[in-house]
Amino acid sequence: MDYFFELFLGGLTRGSIYALIALGYTMVYGIIELINFAHGEIYMIGAFTALIVSSVLAFAGMSGPSVLFLAASVAIIYSAAYGFTVEKIAYKPLRQAPRLSPLISAIGMSIFLQNYVMLAQTSDFLPFPSLLPELPFLESYGLKIGSSEFIILVTTAVSMVLLMLLIKFTKMGKAMRATAQDRNMAMLVGVDVNRTISYTFIIGSILAAIGGVLIASHIGRINFYIGFIAGIKAFTAAVLGGIGSIPGAVLGAFILGWTESFATGYVSSDYEDVFAFVLLVLILIIRPSGLLGRSTVQKV
Amino acid sequence: MNAFAQIRQSLIIALWFMFITFPVLVVRVNTIEKVVEWRWLNMIYVGIGSFLISFVWRYFLERKAQGGKEDTHPAPATATEKPFMQRLMAEPRLYRPFLIVLSLFGLAFPFLPFASTYQINIVTNALLYIMLGLGLNIVVGLAGLLHLGYVAFYAVGAYSYALLYYHFGIGFWVALPIGALFAAIFGIILGFPVLRLRGDYLAIVTLGFAEITRLVLENWNGFSFGPSGIAGIPRPGLFGMEMDLHQGTIYIYFLMIALCLFTIFVVNRLQNSRIGRAWVALREDEVACEAMGVDPTTAKLTAFALGSTWAGLAGVVFAAKTTFVNPASFTFLESAMILSIVVLGGMGSIVGVIIGAFILILLPEYLRAFSEYRMLLFGMIMVVMMIFRPQGIIVGIRQIYEFKKVAAKEGNRQ
After folding, report:
1. If I label B212, which of A11, A57, A182, B219 is the partner at 20 to 30 A Cα–Cα?
2. Tell me, what's the pLDDT at B413?
3. Exposure of B18 in the CB half-sphere (CA atoms within 13 A)
């Protein structure tokens, strides 16, 4: 039972990270119907920025939670800036183009960003400092949960509640929902669509950056390629839950996290990534609209 | 916009790019020696570069916007006027001498004084990519199905030959059709489940499929010998003749030329066939295509199967050429490279794909300093081409049926 609980917890932690990234995919898809291939790269850039900032601060003799706070804030700012810029360069000129064009452009952007980081930094794995503080009070409760896992779960939960509130109750959230429903109609009632799309990219990128910092300090090493696999998995999560649906993305992420965790625990750890892809292929074949997604009726 | 406002905007853009590239491009930390390397020069390059590029970018965006307006109100004269390259290709008097010179050069190339084994190898490599590009062109360019897992079929071809030789000692010429057949079967197996999917989902599923293939090859040691791969695959033979390395390279070069010509011939015939026209119809509008009596299931499956066949053929040649296969040769980047060849050259255009392959494979080889930046460049090309010239360098020729008498009216409607 202990082993089961360990795997369950591992799956929950994985799932939280996937959820943070998957939200970015699902929000962007909901609003402009584009698979933002470069989203995984935004997450990777967030992790790299955090690594660079925390290392510079550590060499300067700083330590403790202030490093975490500064590194995470800078990572969030830069990820948001990259998300915003990528949209302006690669997607905005293609709003009216056929569907294949922005998709190819997004793949191009993803390859570009990967190689940009690889050439500017390194292609090796870099050790990531463990920024997350140890929480001694967890032991006294007798919980079998590591402090970094605990922090990941809490941070994810808080981010998601904040996102929900933002989308439900703010003017920006309302504009986002309106644009997702019907872009032209939203424009007619006075929503600045371009700005709303930019906001969507920025919010998605912020969530990805949070995920990047958390997972990098949990696992302890990063390289330029982490964004690709994480991106595909988060996308799987988003599709599993029904792309475009925010609760769906979270649900899908947890299901994916548990699937991977239990499959590697009970079946074989060699095929860790295969399970995610098999799950993705299966969902798309059996239920392309996802668990919570609405199936779209094709009109002629 | 006046000049002052333009300069101001470019300055803002330059500052923005200097800001966002700062941590990644300027700072580099060495975590072992605990030193920070500050590369301020890079910041200056980025500033100047983005300042200049922003002008070019804006100029082209404006031109594109104006071009778009002209397209919606075509003057009657433009209907008969074709772009230069299309006119060149439509006129035998113009392209024949060009073709003759080209084929003479192709035949003489391995015997020219500067053609070392290395040079011939590079060109053979480019020819291999032409084949892959033309194969992918069937799926992406003609049928409009964005396929991101093309490399999986390339791997199927390569591994078929490697394993068939390893277990049964089967030679190149027998393995060639078998590899192609296996790849085609794999294509159909993949094709069936994804038939219902739309463009972007299809892209992800094909990508996932390719990754599954690669991971299985990497991990299933008993079947594929894992990451270390299979070595000692024989080069193709020619009636038992003994050939040294240089002669063997030349032989593979001619083999590739022959296979490329065969590919071009088949793809060209396919394009104008019933099934080719069905693909183009499918690409343009699936519903309308179905309403006109084209079965989308058959059309999609044949596109997958035929596209994969070429990948399988190329895979067998690849295994024979390098005499070694391992899963590392079949990553997503390979798929992306083939896709950028098709995108750069022009989706649906044979000449375009050939030119695209030569540019993207040969250019980085000959500009050594720049080969490090190859993938960076591929990414950039994909973005820039999609924004400014989605039809590629060379626009695919479309069959146009004209009624001479009502040509003026038809021209207005297009």
Report:
1. A11
2. 47
3. 17
